[in-house]
Amino acid sequence: MRHPAYSRLGRVKILVLGPGAREHAIVLALLSEDADHEIVCAPGNAGVAASGIETPDLAYTDPAAVASFVRERGFDLVVIGPEAPLVAGVADPLRAAGVPVFGPNQDAAALEGSKAFAKRIMDAAGVPTGRAARVTAVAEAGAVLDEFGAPYVVKADGLAAGKGVLVTHDRDAAIEHVATWAPHGDVLVEEFLDGQEVSLFFFADGHDVLPLSPAQDYKRIFDGDEGPNTGGMGAYSPLPWVAQDFVAEITRTVALPTVRQLEAEGTPFIGLLYCGLIVTSKGVRVIEFNARFGDPETQVVLARLESPLSQYLLAAATGTLAAQPEPQFSEDPAVIVVVASEGYPGEVSTGRTITGLDAAAEVPGVHVVHAATARDAADGWVATGGRVLGVVARGTSFGEARERAYRAVSAIELEGSQHRSDIAARVA
Record's superkingdom (predicted)? Predict the structure, then answer.
């Protein structure tokens, strides 16, 4: 049975939870629809507020606080953006109260919250992935690393904001990574998989899935994929180099089996299934799952989405994806370049002034999403975190989209800021 809000999709009262660029991108996609939705983003950020959206201060990782806020305001749909509230179980009391929620419950969110859980689900569902072994203490790490061989892949089991993964040829560094993360939980040593990485998102309603357009992100801080991992320094979409049947193959071999396995175990996955994939010489393998839209890939995927996002969010939340057509995307490519603070991904310098945002937004095909900004006393902009801004550009070709993105980046001034200069260079 469809939720009553679905039949009046012309206007839906939507709460988007989260403070980052991903949530800003979701809000912008909702605002671009013909429908006059009532949108609230909590806690949101200064960029979201500048888009004319209410951004109430809300403890968005606290299930009771969120449930109380939703009950008071009477939302038709709640969209949970980041991983932290999902793993904290924010979806559970909302769903129990009959509120349509786009985001898995706490048990299903373990697909991202625990890499060991994800590996077990993949094995049970027959999903292609690399070998992995669990390590609980430094004393056993050496033997496991020697068994798998270099390059060594070491992953913290729980959430680590993109910083819990180490890929290295240095055995001592791999052991040190185990030592860093083992006190906080299990650590996985995995088989190294060589190839091009792909991010592919799926809307999921607990039984069915619908794919979005694939993207590729850039995880390391420096050009040429050098330096430490980050939360993501840029991305582009679509991927002209994947096979024509790539999306259909991943739907059949990865997304559907995973969602059906979770359903069979009594933990239906409702929300956004992020498949982190690698195209190897032996076929496509899953590196990881996330339980939410990826950042910064979301910004380029949603920039190309031509179908109304709200339609799919609500269909997933209400179990009606099977009645929906596949989402449609513009053929125009999109590129995002992330502008980060000095020191990122380590200790960062914050509070520095940002100028040039208006000039950047005036570049054709460009919009800027905010990740970590605030207004100062003079109503100017300051940086408040590591990844500060995302400059998103569309164009009729990758070359045009890329040129526009970097032209806009060059207009932005932030002392000590850093960005990669090679985003989408391989396809331009």
Answer: Bacteria
Confidence of residue 6 (pLDDT cuts 50, 70, 90): very low
Q: What is the pLDDT of residues 367-412, one digit of tens each?
A: 999 999 999 999 999 999 999 999 999 999 999 999 999 999 999 9
Q: Which CATH class is domain 12-102?
A: alpha beta
Place of tokens 């109430």: 56
Give the percent of the chain with pLDDT over 90.
Answer: 80
**Strand, helix or coil for residue 304:** helix
Cβ neighbours, 10 Å, residue 257: 18
Q: Domain extents for the chain?
A: 12-102, 131-190, 194-323, 334-414
CB atoms within 10 A of CB 126: 11
Alpha helices (runs of H) in 289-335, residue ranges in sequence order: 297-304, 309-317
In this prediction the pTM is 0.91
SS3 69: helix
**Topology classification of domain 334-414:** Glycinamide Ribonucleotide Synthetase; Chain A, domain 4 (3.90.600)
d(C-alpha 18, C-alpha 41), whole Å:
7
Q: In the prediction, which pLDDT does 161 show?
A: 56
Higher-pLDDT residue of 165 and 276 is 276
Q: What is the pLDDT of residues 225-258, one digit of tens each?
A: 999 989 999 999 999 999 999 999 999 999 999 9
Give the CATH fold of the 131-190 domain: Dna Ligase; domain 1 (3.30.1490)
Which strand ranges, in their side-by-side order, compose the sheet holding 209-211? 209-211, 196-205, 270-280, 283-290
Third-level CATH fold of 194-323: D-amino Acid Aminotransferase; Chain A, domain 1 (3.30.470)
Query: Is residue 28 a contact partner of residue 53, using CB atoms and an 8 Å limit?
Result: no
Distance CA 297, CA 294 (A): 6
- Transcribe 349-404 into DSSP letters: --S-EEE-HHHHHTSTTEEEEESSEEE-TTS-EEE-SSEEEEEEEE-SSHHHHHHH
